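DM from R.C. (forwarded with permission)

"hey, sorry to bug you on a friday — could you get me a structure for this? deadline for the figure draft is monday and I only need the backbone to look sensible"
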Amino acid sequence: MSASGPSQRQLRVGELIRRTLSEVLQRGEVHDPDLQRMSITVGEVRVTPDLRNATAYVLPLGGQQKEEAIEALNRNKAEIRHLVTHGMTIKFAPEIRFEIDDTFDRMDATRRLLAEDNVRRDLED
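My reply, with the result:
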């Protein structure tokens, strides 16, 4: 990403990939019993400026089995890429990487920090 942030095109393609990937996983279209047993949330997809690489931030329901989810997604990367980009009208099918979405962990850490007595006292002053 550039210093000014992602372009409208990057945001649009990222959101399209996110929505499509979520639907593919929800419908169980990937032929892997491990993935079909998991409920995986796709929080965000970030796309590089050249649209050739995408990073999908995912989290299994309840935050359990994170490593197993990433392993299963990586094991089926080629099939997922084909299913996700099948109906898209872009020049290149982006390579999709999977990473754990730590947004909820960061939000919890921020809440804990704000709940500390000395921080609350400083905020009230």
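R.C.: lifesaver. The chain has one domain: 8-124.
me: no worries. Helices lie at 8-26, 33-37, 66-75, 77-85, 103-115, 117-124.
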